[in-house]
């Protein structure tokens, strides 16, 4: 049994989740790009497919990849900070419960030992992956010093449209480089 199998069977916080546990994760030991997200949305919970929602549509657009490529576990490992839907809060989904990261993250990141690029999405993943994290905007602005191995992105949620409008440099300057970096890795795999 792999760590992915163990995670998919995890029920550690089942009773504390509004819809119960349904861990959602994707990957293989050969994955080359790791998407470090936050927590599954309700649609992801219901379909058990990571980023199977409006955020996923935008993320695939940012990466300029098809659904088939994105959902190929030999290319993309999709590893949220929490594996189950945390529930709804006042201004969107609740934060990922920290228990998943505490229990699984270190071992899981070692499992994906062929990763060439880690894409760190949103505040909670960035807090974990970047020691000097202050804000999503400040972390994302450091993209040139992070690449080619890691990059911070804002969450691709439609709720972040104001952030994207206010920070037009992101889609203008960062996305083309992200696409080029991603496609170089994908091309080497095929």
Automatic annotation (TrEMBL):
List, alphabetically, the InterPro entries matched: HI_0220.2, Uracil-DNA_glycosylase-like, Uracil-DNA_glycosylase-like_sf
For the Uracil-DNA glycosylase-like domain, which residue ranges apply?
Answer: 24-179
Cross-referenced CDD domains: UDG_like
SUPFAM superfamilies given for it? Answer: Uracil-DNA glycosylase-like
The record ties this protein, via SMART domains, to: UDG, UreE_C
User: This chain belongs to which protein, by name?
Assistant: Uracil-DNA glycosylase
Q: Say which species the protein is native to.
A: Pseudoalteromonas aurantia
What are the top taxonomic ranks of the organism?
A: Bacteria, Pseudomonadati, Pseudomonadota, Gammaproteobacteria, Alteromonadales
